[in-house]
């Protein structure tokens, strides 16, 4: 049987791409966002800003976050900033909007960024039918439309007041071209109706099918349930839960490799998981919201570092760190600092985002208990032929007991 490319020493495909990047300078992919320093030749960074609603009442934090980002954008290779929603706590207080507007303006002309409305940004908390005009005034399409990295917003509505709350952005890093989707809180609609938020999002994905995608939405994971949200909190029932968003938009679109969210904040305000989508590709789902912590969250933000060649079980690594520019301190517990090993060329570089997740480890044309047995016998060191490409059903570059379980479940029709 043929071994999976790159499963031993780095595959020639990965080596050749990285050799080219070193030759021309890894900063080439970042040219659209400014000059990149030496650190960015080794890794690039996406920063996630968790709910700033309390920061809008305490000026020590939000501006310190954005100033740190602007000051360190070259050294840390910061290519994009994503605000996870709940910009303010009291939407009827203009001073909060003015302060957050000024804080986010520090990024203008320096780093591409996106904001999304959370439930507290509506004039009546959790009520989508209430006014969202203050958010639209400060963070609507007019704020971004002159930037080359801004793709657009949608969907429009007939009333002209509550539409265009979602948007998309385009950026490049490490030789890859990315799409970022910023979806409003509990994005409503269906993927088949382009007049709704989910339908609009699907049209954007269809327009850029070859771009690996990060999706940011306010409410998606639930820290208490340690999984996706299953209930819609909007008082009129208008919207989709995290699980509904996964089923209808994320899982069917393999180009979405990461989902960022805030909102849920009990305990330490952190949770992450890795899920397999319909194509058996890995999706990295990350929740961060520090509003329940000491002193309004102390300015903590998420540094998501993409490190080519930094992996152990796969060629590359996505390293997540939690850092406060206010305290100049890191949180280092297992929920705050963690990593995912992944092959960037496989996950980001393919022209179509499909994986061979057949599960047919014994190559006999069907999937049944024998395929799971083949994997387990191989792992036990028994001499048995195995199609490692087909057996690596989660596409992480390794064949392990997790693949055996997924093959078993697939053979049972789960």
Describe this structure in words.
Mean pLDDT is 83; it is low at 1-40. 23% of the residues lie in helices and 21% in strands. The strands form three sheets. Strands 1, 2, 3, 13, 14, 15 and 16 form a seven-stranded mixed beta sheet that branches. It has a seven-stranded mixed beta sheet with strand order 4-5-6-7-10-12-11. It has ten helices and 16 strands. The chain has two domains: 18-348, Purple Acid Phosphatase, chain A, domain 2 (4-Layer Sandwich); 369-411, no CATH class. Helix 2 (62-72) links the parallel strand 1 (44-49) and strand 2. It is globular, with a radius of gyration of 22 Å. With 414 residues, it is α/β, with parallel strands linked by helices.
Kindly report how far apart the N and C termini lie. Answer: 27 Å
The CATH topology of the largest domain turns out to be Purple Acid Phosphatase, chain A, domain 2
Number of discrete domains: 2
Uncertain ranges = 1-40
CATH superfamily of the largest domain: Metallo-dependent phosphatases
Task: Give the tally of β-strands.
Answer: 16
Main sheet record: 7 strands, mixed
The secondary-structure element order is HEHEHEHEEEHEEEHEEEEEEEHHHH
């Amino acid at each position: 049987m043929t071994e999976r490319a790159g499963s031993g020493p780095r595959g020639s495909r990965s080596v050749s791409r990285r050799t080219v990047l070193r030759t021309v300078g890894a900063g080439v992919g970042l040219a659209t966002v400014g000059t990149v320093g030496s650190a960015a030749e080794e890794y690039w960074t996406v920063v996630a800003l968790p709910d700033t609603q309390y920061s809008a009442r305490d000026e020590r934090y939000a501006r310190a976050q954005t100033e740190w980002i602007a000051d360190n954008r070259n050294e840390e290779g910061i290519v994009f900033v994503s605000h996870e929603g709940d910009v303010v706590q009291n939407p009827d207080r203009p001073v909060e909007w003015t302060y957050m507007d000024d804080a986010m303006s520090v990024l203008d002309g320096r780093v591409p960024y996106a904001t999304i409305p959370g439930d507290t940004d509506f004039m009546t908390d959790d009520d989508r039918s209430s006014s969202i005009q203050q958010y639209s005034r400060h963070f609507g399409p007019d704020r971004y439309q002159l930037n080359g990295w801004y793709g657009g917003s949608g969907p429009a509505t007939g009333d002209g007041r509550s539409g265009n709350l979602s948007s998309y952005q385009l950026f490049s890093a490490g030789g890859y071209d990315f799409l970022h989707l910023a979806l409003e809180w509990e994005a409503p609609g269906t993927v088949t109706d382009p007049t709704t938020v989910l339908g609009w999002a699907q049209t954007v994905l269809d327009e850029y099918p070859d771009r690996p995608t990060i999706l940011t939405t306010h409410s998606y994971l639930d820290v208490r349930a340690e999984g996706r949200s299953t209930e819609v909190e909007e008082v009129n029932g208008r919207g989709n839960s995290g699980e509904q968003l996964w089923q209808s938009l994320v899982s069917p679109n393999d180009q979405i490799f990461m989902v960022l969210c805030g909102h849920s904040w009990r305990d330490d305000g952190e949770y992450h998981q890795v899920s397999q989508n319909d194509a058996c590709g890995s999706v990295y789902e990350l929740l961060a919201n520090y509003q329940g912590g000491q002193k309004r969250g102390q300015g903590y933000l998420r540094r998501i570092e993409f490190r080519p060649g930094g992996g152990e079980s796969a060629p590359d690594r996505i390293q997540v760190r939690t850092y406060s520019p206010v305290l100049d301190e890191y949180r280092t517990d297992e929920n705050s600092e963690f990593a995912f090993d992944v092959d960037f060329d496989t996950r980001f570089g393919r022209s179509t985002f499909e994986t061979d997740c057949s599960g047919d480890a014994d190559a006999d044309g069907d999937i049944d208990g024998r395929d799971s047995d083949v994997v387990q016998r191989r792992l036990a060191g028994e001499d048995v032929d195995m199609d490692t490409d087909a057996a690596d059903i989660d596409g992480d570059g390794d064949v392990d007991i997790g693949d055996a379980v997924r093959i078993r479940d697939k053979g049972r029709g789960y």
